[in-house]
């Protein structure tokens, strides 16, 4: 029996439509990452080496922890994410809600190269993978005498020695720890003593020598424009700006020490077992070293040896101060409310 050309065409069209409507094959492991240069380094130093090592395809989802945790919570028995990059406060939330697994060293041999100080704060529901520390970034053309301590820095702003750029309440990556907890810790206030915290904040605001930045890059704009001279900022970002567009920007840690800001990795409960393989890839020394030099932050594998400028710049972990992340996160809603009423920027 002869089949007409029309039948051939109809059959071909039906097959094409079926192929177009079929879902794309899922990646072997789905992981999350922060955007920008962080994502680029993550793909180059972790995702690509993982595929080369295991043959597993990697899907990298860009966004932020609240979004990712919501996605996992919506379908905990079949989560859309296998490995969760997180921050300390939201990592605690993920473990409290039963969304992530305890680390299993038998599945992550390189975990033995990670100090317990990077795992214990997470109660073994993840590990720090890299970290920066907040110190003071300043315009060396306008600040002639550097404050030696954080307390001297805040007092110098009150006294009008310079204009200080402080993180505003909307900068959630910086303000809770580098400013609010920092002040509480420096002045010996109880974390529940809201009045003591806001008394210091009001002194700074009322001095007229403070400007607030609510975008991490706005700090650099304030320094470049001359609207501010000095302020709390992250080491890696400060050095990146110094090496590229703002050579007169310098950075140091005051005597009390920098304030740590870690990135965390967690294995999602009920996610693919390939997630363990990915965490192993991420924690190996070569890949950690690649990431450190690409992004300018310290990493946690003890076998990593930094080179060049980075070797001089990474903070001494023994001198970094660790905020009380869980209690800060619990108090942020009331601090935000009071800030909006009394500080307003």
TrEMBL record:
Gene Ontology CC annotations of this record: outer membrane-bounded periplasmic space
A GO term, aspect molecular function: thiamine binding
GO BP term, pick one: thiamine transport
Coiled coil location: none
Pfam families with a match to the protein in the record: SBP_bac_6
Highest classification ranks of the organism: Bacteria, Pseudomonadati, Pseudomonadota, Alphaproteobacteria, Hyphomicrobiales
Signal peptide: 1-26
Organism: Falsochrobactrum shanghaiense
Protein name in UniProt: ABC transporter substrate-binding protein
Organism domain of life: Bacteria
Keywords, in A-Z order: Signal
